[in-house]
Amino acid sequence: MRQWFRIAFPKNYLDRRKRAGFLFVLPALLFFGSVFILPLAQSIMYSFYKIAPGGAKEFVGLRLYEKVLTDSTFWTAVGNTVQLLLFSVPTTVVLALAVALGLNRITNLKWRNVWASMYFLPFATSLVAAALIWQWIYDPVYGFLNYALSFVGIPPQKWLQSLVEVRPAIAAVSVWVRIGFDTMIFLAALQSIPQEYYEAADIDGASAVQRLRYITLPLLNPQIIMVCILELIFNFKIFDQVYATTQGGPAGASQTIIMLLYDTAFKYFRFGDASVMAVFVFVTLMLVTLAAMAALPKTRRVLKTAW
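and the corresponding structure tokens:
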């Protein structure tokens, strides 16, 4: 409390600088608190109440947790979400790294920026607009994808209407949207690697594969871990693509946990059940993030030994 008082009422130049920094950060703190912290606290509180559509609340303790966590529909949605993660996260990370390595080899800065902008453009596009475009691409009758596959003798596929193909199809949209963002992170990291390392490797006769294995990948390990965490968070909370294309269909095959949360809260008005799902998502993502951050130093040591 005394430290906050000193920042608010500084006595010397150093304290005035601290107050200036605090005032610059304060709007972001207020925004984060009002948009994220308060809704999270409200969701945690509502998860212990049975809330009627009119707003009347009845305290039920942990009964809603028992109801939601033993519901087969809930775990089906979790399974669909995990499958989307398995389809999209590794593909996005590998492709983004490959694109970043290719862009880093372009010596002409102008053309590198042009190609980087083209890859980044899907990330700047509205997710709903992108999903609607891909819905047309996946159309079984008029879609461009089936039209292109017809030239190699592949019959038309019902991408968004098939129980088997719908999840890979939605995962492809996520890869298309996210690859540009991850590419920029990898490209910035590649450009920060000192060229002396590669020059020394060339003198020692190292091949391109050896330079990638012994120099590039170990030095990119923090960025790879960070991108994996960001992709896990994004894909675990996937909603826009599903809502705009399939709305959870067919027969719930593409219903993710966030889609189920939305339906539970705003279609069936079971806000208590939806709050339990929100708490589950928050706790899961927090545990995954903490585990990845804790494993980062260990991963560095293992890679250093392996390389």
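(Above: one complete record from the training split.) Strands lie at 49-51, 57-59.
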